[in-house]
Amino acid sequence: RPLSNTVTATVEGPPPLTAEFVGMPESHDGVGTFEFELRFSEDFPGRLPPRLLRDEAFEVTHGTVQRARRVEQEQNRRWTIAVQPDSHEDVTVELPAATDCDAVGAVCTEAGRPLSNTTTATVAGPQASAQVDGSVLTLAWETRRDGFALPSGKDFAVRVDGGLRAVASTSLWMRGVVLGLAEPVRPHQAVAVDYLGSAMHPLRDGAGDAEPAWRDLPAVNVTGVASAEGPAVRATAANRPPVTDDVSASFAGLELGDTGLAVAGIGTDVRRLDLSRNGLADIATLARLRALESLDLSDNDIIDVSALRGLTALRRLDLGGNDIVEVWPLADLPDLEVLVLDGNRVADVGALTHMARLENLGLARNAVEDISPLADLRSLRRLDLGWNPVRDLSPVGDLQRLVWLRLPDAGGDAPTHRLVLLRWLLAPDTPGTCLGCAVLRND
After folding, report:
1. Are residues 90 and 145 in the same domain?
2. 193 is in which domain, residue-wise?
3. pLDDT tens digits for 336-354?
4. 117 plus 24 within the same structural domain
5. 248-250 and 214-221: which strand pairing?
6. What is the pTM of this model?
7. Among 40, 162, 171, 382, which residue has the least CB neighbours within 10 Å?
């Protein structure tokens, strides 16, 4: 007689090994280490070397694991992890799940049970505090800033009760920047600040690292409050921060002229150079400065830019306020990230077609009619087309990473509905609009 039934039983194995981060800080100061606890789901037996956690197991962006130590001796469940940021940017810490216990950095028990989940956390870099008093808005950081060159007012977007408030002036002080607003803020108005990033002269910390873009930083409004305390300062030459390196040179506003530039003795290792407002027409002597990464030639008398075509290390170039018509020599600079051509006589922008890394393009007050060559600049975050006779704005719709856009006129037909990241939309002689901004409150 055969067995008439099937008998089945399941014996559960041990539960999966999981991990979590406990006590992860919300932010770091960009200088010192921060700590958190790595907590496994069980105190599994066997050997888990601290070196594995310190050197191999974690994947860290903008930082490194400095220490890994047990909270209690001879146990594997709880560990204190210390991370050292390498900049003021956000630090991302990830402990990935293990799929192969023989792989480098894999976390497994001695019995071969792998870590089953991936744990990730992001620790924000230091942000400014903001205070506004009338027409003076002060941004302050805990650590000193770099004093090489002033950011532009266009690098900031200030909202007052939801409307854009123009920034008329900027000045640096030891730990921040002071923005002079075109119109004063009234008591009890709500104020918030965006820093747009992708700047010609970005805000930099004392280590020379550029400040990343941020948005919706609330400002404490102390207008009319006599006893207000906070970061408001008067930016003066005495408290201007020092330049953070020895490969930067500024001759801004010295009126060198072509003769003075030729004998200025600028070293070939210079990386940041500011020659704005110097009455320059002939810039041939700059062709030897092959290490240049940032060059400000704004507000001069330049017509010919052919001397720049060999400066392939350039990432930021300001040619605003000159008399330039022909920009084809710039086609040899495909790695530019910032290009400012405001206030020239440029009509043909075909030379810019292959600048795939370009994030900020200023073309205000030129003679551009055809912007189709810009359609492939998919890295653009900021584009200024103000005061140009553009015939067809449809190429703007292809620039999906745009955050800030100024149209040629208020009645333009740009397909801005396709720009899902667009936050600031402006046109000449009209207030800017913040798209999708939350309602500000000043409680």
Report:
1. no
2. 129-239
3. 999 999 999 999 999 999 9
4. yes
5. unpaired
6. 0.76
7. 162
